């Protein structure tokens, strides 16, 4: 990130927020909905790591403090910055962009890394407790900012909009040629995971997986393991599995994937908030060639994201793992897995789940 994002040009009087009763708010259950000229994105609050920043932001947003403001700084595929209250006035001279709303709250340095999607409070590095209404969003990891700024949010939806804002034309200092207006920021209840409230009968969907070795269609079987199907569809719908590898391959047995830490774009993903351990849903179905089952450790309650494609009959798994789907197209891809060279149980070349999508009904 260009260090000039972190240098305000001048100080201005800090606006006062009315004292509303924030004790009734439950920051863990709400998120910010930011609507801009270029689209809408949402972020959840890291209220345990930066409680004062979250309190101020929620209160200010509810009072309309950010409405009509703007993002004034952008560096392509790096970061964006906004929230200066002066920018609500279109006559504010360019040389004062980024100088307003300072000295509102104490700095809350925490252990959150400034990874892609992190929302952090702007402050003057030269002045302790100068944290402001301004905030910046990391489009790419900014390790140089770790331990210097107060991270207080994480994008949960609309990262493509943030990407687009970062790429608007800007001068050599990062100040945008045309302000990207913040139409509104609203505080709303967190959106549930897409399939959390779907009836079991409606979970019988088909997932298309594009892999290094070809395309597979998997039909979900909610009658076998409804909660595993629901979990899998939630993550697929968010793109959580895209770019994850098949890290384990045992010929005639399984091709296993679904480990987020090995994702080609990095371990963190907005849908991580929906990752959780699943209670077992062992069933009477056989582990046949083409069945899809959830991996786990020795703990029956440890399944979460990792799954395996069964490459050949595996009766010793029956009743011990939760099957939740079956391959209905692309069985030849399973044959291709069986032909791949391995070193032990590790494929010798990268075999990826390039993209997983839920087919339209």
Give the topology, please:
Elements: E1 30-36, E2 39-45, H1 51-62, E3 69-75, E4 79-82, E5 118-121, E6 135-138, E7 150-157, H2 159-166, E8 175-189, E9 206-211, E10 214-220, H3 226-237, E11 244-250, E12 254-257, E13 291-294, E14 307-310, E15 323-329, H4 331-339, E16 342-343, E17 346-347, E18 352-358
Antiparallel strand pairs: 1-2, 1-8, 2-7, 3-4, 3-8, 4-6, 5-6, 5-7, 9-10, 9-18, 10-15, 11-12, 11-18, 12-14, 13-14, 13-15, 16-17
Structural commentary:
- There is one protein chain.
- The protein is mainly β and 361 residues long.
- The protein has two domains: 3-189, Cyclophilin (Beta Barrel), CATH 2.40.100; 200-358, Cyclophilin, CATH 2.40.100.
- The protein has four helices and 18 strands.
- The chain has helices at residues 51-62, 159-166, 226-237, 331-339, and strands spanning 30-36, 39-45, 69-75, 79-82, 118-121, 135-138, 150-157, 175-189, 206-211, 214-220, 244-250, 254-257, 291-294, 307-310, 323-329, 342-343, 346-347, 352-358.
- Strands 1-2-7-5-6-4-3-8 form an eight-stranded antiparallel β-barrel. An eight-stranded antiparallel beta barrel has the order 9-10-15-13-14-12-11-18. It has a two-stranded antiparallel sheet with strand order 16-17.
- A hairpin with a 2-residue loop joins β16 and β17.
- The longest helix is centred in the first third of the chain and has 12 residues, at 51-62.
- The chain is elongated and about 70 Å long.
- The model is unreliable at 1-23 (pLDDT under 50).
């Amino acid at each position: 990130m260009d260090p000039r994002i972190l240098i305000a040009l001048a100080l201005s009087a800090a606006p006062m927020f009315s004292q509303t009763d924030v004790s009734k708010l439950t920051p863990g259950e709400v998120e910010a909905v930011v609507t801009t000229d270029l689209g809408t994105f949402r972020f959840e609050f890291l209220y345990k790591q930066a409680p004062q920043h979250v309190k101020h932001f929620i209160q200010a947003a509810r009072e309309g403090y950010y409405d009509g403001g703007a993002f004034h700084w952008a560096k392509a595929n790096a970061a964006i910055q906004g929230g200066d209250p002066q920018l609500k006035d279109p006559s504010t001279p360019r040389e004062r962009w980024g100088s307003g709303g300072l000295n509102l709250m104490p700095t809350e340095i925490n252990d959150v890394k400034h990874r892609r999607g992190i929302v952090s409070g702007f402050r003057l590095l030269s002045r302790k407790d100068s944290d402001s209404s301004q905030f910046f969003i990391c489009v790419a990891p900014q390790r140089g900012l770790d331990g210097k700024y107060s991270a207080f949010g994480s994008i949960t939806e609309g990262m493509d909009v943030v990407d687009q804002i970062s790429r608007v034309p800007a001068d050599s200092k990062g100040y945008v040629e045309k302000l990207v207006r913040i139409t509104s920021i609203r505080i709303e209840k967190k959106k549930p995971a897409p399939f959390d409230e779907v009836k079991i009968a409606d979970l019988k969907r088909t997932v298309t997986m594009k892999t290094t070795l070809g395309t597979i269609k998997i039909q979900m079987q909610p009658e076998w393991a409804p909660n595993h199907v629901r979990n899998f569809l939630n993550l697929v719908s968010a793109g959580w599995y895209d770019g994850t590898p098949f890290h384990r391959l045992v010929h005639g047995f399984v091709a296993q994937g679904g480990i987020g830490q090995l994702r080609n774009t990095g371990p963190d993903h907005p849908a991580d908030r929906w990752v959780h351990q699943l209670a077992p849903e062992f069933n009477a179905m056989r582990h046949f060639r083409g069945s899809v089952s959830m991996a786990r450790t020795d703990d029956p309650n440890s399944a979460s994201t990792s799954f395996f494609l069964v490459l050949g009959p595996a009766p010793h798994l029956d009743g011990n793992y939760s099957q939740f789907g079956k391959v209905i197209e692309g069985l030849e891809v399973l044959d291709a897995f069986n032909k791949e060279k391995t070193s032990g149980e590790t494929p010798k070349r990268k075999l990826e789940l390039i993209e997983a999508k839920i087919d339209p009904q």
